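## retry 2 of 3
previous attempt timed out at serialization; input unchanged, resubmitting
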Amino acid sequence: MTFMYRVVSEPIDIAELIASVSAPEVGGIATFFGTVRRQNAGRTVLAVEYHAYPTMAEKAMRAIGEEVLRGYGVSRVGMAHRVGRLEVGDVSVVIVAGAPHRHEALGAATYAIDRLKQVVPIWKKEFYEDGSAWLEPQPSSGKGT
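## retry succeeded, writing output
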């Protein structure tokens, strides 16, 4: 069984990721798309730039995938993160999880994005109208952040 864990410099192939978790035993596929937003912490964002060590990042993504497979009752999981300069609205990260039922798939996708932000070596720089700043990873508050 092949799962996808990728760091890419081009737009993420969302259809390929979804296809990678599709299977006859999968009754629910949960997807999470992270996009570049216009506002962050009261500042207008013009663009972001992501940097990573792809080999290390993909290894960490694979470890998260293994955690998800063991702990959430999913049969398939995949994730991709884009690096380079992204504009507002661009997709920066995609998580997909396939399970027999939707609850497992949804829980797995939520867990995977939270863990990705905690442990995967990907760095984000935001560009504003009045300058730029490197951002520290922030754990999810569960309140839509």
